């Protein structure tokens, strides 16, 4: 299997984001996948991409931690024209590549200043047919916005546009919720990969010697370098090697060199850093992602001076986790001086070296494996579908002035498991309303909480307990002609009351009999019990089977219930839809009844999920959407329930 992979990253301060994205690109290319890395930050020296291609956008950067003000290479604020040029190149790359997998680095958890180009990229990816698998790539620790609405916006974008979130960390060291306020709806999308190590070579072994000082690639490490030189004048009985990031200007680099004592070597960061670190008596550095991976690989004693300017919390949290495991000492940036650093180094040298913990550091390979698995779980997932029967039926209906409307019902909900999250995320992704036929006896409060924020999802009453009361060898039914009408009426009324007590305004007084079978004698009683509508499965005979009762049924089901219990063949599903449309065109069915899609999220496998999504996406491409069920049934929920004393 050869996949096309597009990775989009923009680093604004240091190069850590780019380094990690490049490691992912290298890993995908190493598995034979056609990989393109699109970088929107300042051009940086990268290790061999291993066959992946690099596309450089007009670069954006920042000064310090002012991530709101984007600058070009000449430190001039970027304008709309500049951003439009970036976006054009990005979208052209997507369209020419037509990737199977799109990975956005950090967005939507960060890079809000570039939200316009990222959202355009996501929308374009979703418009491809077949739709691109979309993943988000984030480091182990994030910086959560201070404003709750921004966190909510990030979650909304994840749920609407992404299939999974690759967290490049190990929850045994630091779980994502330690830095980001996780919500249950997003949790099913989280995939921990382990830490991404940009250098997969074995760690060199050798005699320990000297003190190694390192910083990130930006000028943010200048205070650390200056304090290290002051400390080198205090600790004179040990060699020092101070590695300066390439984001430090040549003038500052020269100043550092000029003030170094004879036993301290000042030089630019080197590609053999891992070997230098492995041979160090002690390391002093900030607590960036890649640096910590280096420390975990080498098992060297360390002092961490986490970067905390601009209220940054990422590095301090990571450092605290390592300190809690006995792996490092911390010198807060606010207390940094030559004297304090010398004291911390002496204290560290007096301690025995600790064995590094067993932390997953094969994140690049695991990311590839996770992505491949997600794709493989989709062709039975992505068969070639001939949409022409459906398209032709829609065109005939249009030409003959027959309006065709759709609605969506999903049966058997009782709680809010991951499958329901997936269903509602799918609906939201395509602006689709959905009616959840819920089983009142088994309802849990989690379902009410989950539906509270879903403006286009409502509950319907799915019988009482979904129990079969039909005699042996008869078709299953809970409200069939096998029980007294009075008994069934009392049970249906109780079901409505229980469901409303739990779900409140999210409940529509619509009765959905289990197995879509209902006694003809019970139907006239439904309005008296508080119901205003009925829904089964087939073309309705008349719109109102009883005074005050509207009937809107479902007509197509993607599940092969009598065979594989996976998805029906796509051509069978499309034939069912085309037939329902044709019956309305020629007058065999009521034109005013919307065509109902019926799903059962609790039993969907990946093939059913994918076929359902491809159908919904195809209709959306033709500007055909599923309206909210309250609109389908013409109901103002609260007023209808109050009018019946519920």
**Cα-to-Cα separation, first versus last residue:** 57 Å
The strand line-up of the biggest sheet is 3-2-1-4-5-6-7
Number of helices: 20
Rounded mean pLDDT is 90
Unreliably modeled segments: 637-646
Proportion in β-strands: 5-15%
Largest sheet: 7 strands, parallel
Could you walk me through the main structural features you see in this protein, from its secondary elements to its overall organization?
With 646 residues, the protein is an alpha/beta fold. The protein folds into three domains: 189 residues, Rossmann fold, CATH 3.40.50; 139 residues, Rossmann fold (3-Layer(aba) Sandwich), CATH 3.40.50; 254 residues, Alpha-Beta Barrel (TIM Barrel). It is built from 20 helices and 20 strands. The strands form three sheets. It has a seven-stranded parallel beta sheet, with helices on both faces. Strands 19-18-17-16-15-14-20 form a seven-stranded parallel beta sheet. Helix 13 links the parallel strand 14 and strand 15. Helix 12 packs parallel to helix 17. The longest helix is centred in the C-terminal third of the chain and has 19 residues. The radius of gyration is 30 Å and the shape is elongated. The C terminus is likely disordered.
Question: How are the elements arranged and paired?
Answer:
Elements: E1 4-9, H1 16-30, E2 34-39, E3 53-56, H2 80-97, E4 101-105, H3 115-127, E5 133-139, H4 148-161, E6 164-168, E7 190-192, E8 211-214, H5 222-232, E9 240-244, H6 250-258, E10 264-268, H7 273-278, E11 282-285, H8 289-298, E12 302-304, H9 314-324, E13 329-330, H10 338-349, H11 363-376, H12 388-399, E14 406-413, H13 418-429, E15 434-438, H14 445-451, E16 457-461, H15 485-503, E17 507-511, H16 526-529, E18 533-534, E19 550-551, H17 570-586, E20 595-599, H18 606-621, H19 629-632, H20 637-643
Parallel strand pairs: 1-2, 1-4, 2-3, 4-5, 5-6, 6-7, 8-9, 8-11, 9-10, 11-12, 12-13, 14-15, 14-20, 15-16, 16-17, 17-18, 18-19
Helix pairs in contact: 1-11, 2-3, 5-10, 12-17
